[in-house]
Amino acid sequence: GAVVSQHPSRVICKSGTSVKIECRSLDFQATTMFWYRQFPKQSLMLMATSNEGSKATYEQGVEKDKFLINHASLTLSTLTVTSAHPEDSSFYICSARVSGLPEKLFFGSGTQLSVL
Amino acid sequence: DAKTTQPNSMESNEEEPVHLPCNHSTISGTDYIHWYRQLPSQGPEYVIHGLTSNVNNRMASLAIAEDRKSSTLILHRATLRDAAVYYCILRALNTGFQKLVFGTGTRLLVSP
């Protein structure tokens, strides 16, 4: 099956710094990628939809200036958490749609962000 | 997307079948029923999906009620590795399956 690689798997940073998370589709082209966040014991919350070559569409309540999403190529999308604060500590997960196979999404293994 | 209702948790013994129910009484004609599962500390993975007919794959079976207002994910022989949160999600074909919105899911506990 299609593989989505997410990096890093874990990151610890100081409050006020920015953190970039990468999401790559390894063996397919992903025209659309999705970013989720998940707090402990809770379900996944969709943050934004990222289409290659265009601006991301953010879900209501998600600050677009704080969570910068770039989808510059068909195999790479990045999420940058700017000026991170402890409340941004969460599990961030990306997923990708395969062109021609819209019914399945393939997920990365997630990034655990801890902001001190 | 229409809402689904699942039990918060279920328990099973290893090597026994597991039936995970999902209610979706407001399902529309263009909604597909999808199941994903999330193992601890990992991203979700696709399990199965269907529209009207029952579906089988190497991971599980999906039984869909005749009126489509409910469905059941069947794991034929649970293993310890099947311990996960299982999400039943409706996705509309007429929106091109644009996004996947997760509910609370069912946490499956598997005992040796």
List the total number of helices of chain A: 0
- Counted by DSSP, the helix tally of chain B is 0
Question: Which class of secondary structure composition applies to the elements of chain B?
Answer: mainly beta
- As a whole number of angstroms, the C-alpha radius of gyration of chain A is 13 Å
From the alpha carbons, calculate the radius of gyration of chain B and give it in angstroms: 13 Å
Shape of chain B: globular
How far do the termini of chain B sit from each other?
37 Å
Description:
The complex is a heterodimer of chains A (116) and B (112). The N and C termini of chain A lie far apart (37 Å). With 116 residues, chain A is mostly beta strands. Chain B is 0% helix and 46% strand. A five-stranded mixed beta sheet of chain B has the order 1-9-8-3-4, with no helix packed on it. A four-stranded antiparallel beta sheet of chain B has the order 2-7-6-5, with no helix packed on it. In chain B, strand 5 and strand 6 form a beta hairpin. The relative contact order of chain B is 0.35. Chains A and B meet through strand 5, strand 9 and strand 10 of A and strand 3, strand 4 and strand 8 of B.
Could you give a quick summary of the protein structure above?
The complex is a heterodimer of chains A (116) and B (112). Chain A is mostly beta strands and 116 residues long.
Itemize the secondary structure elements and their pairings.
The complex is a heterodimer of chains A (116) and B (112).
Chain A: E1 4-7, E2 10-13, E3 19-25, E4 32-38, E5 45-51, E6 57-58, E7 67-73, E8 76-81, E9 90-98, E10 101-107, E11 111-115
Parallel strand pairs in A: 2-11
Antiparallel strand pairs in A: 1-3, 3-8, 4-5, 4-9, 5-6, 7-8, 9-10, 9-11
Chain B: E1 9-13, E2 18-23, E3 31-38, E4 45-50, E5 55-56, E6 61-64, E7 70-75, E8 84-92, E9 106-111
Parallel strand pairs in B: 1-9
Antiparallel strand pairs in B: 2-7, 3-4, 3-8, 5-6, 6-7, 8-9
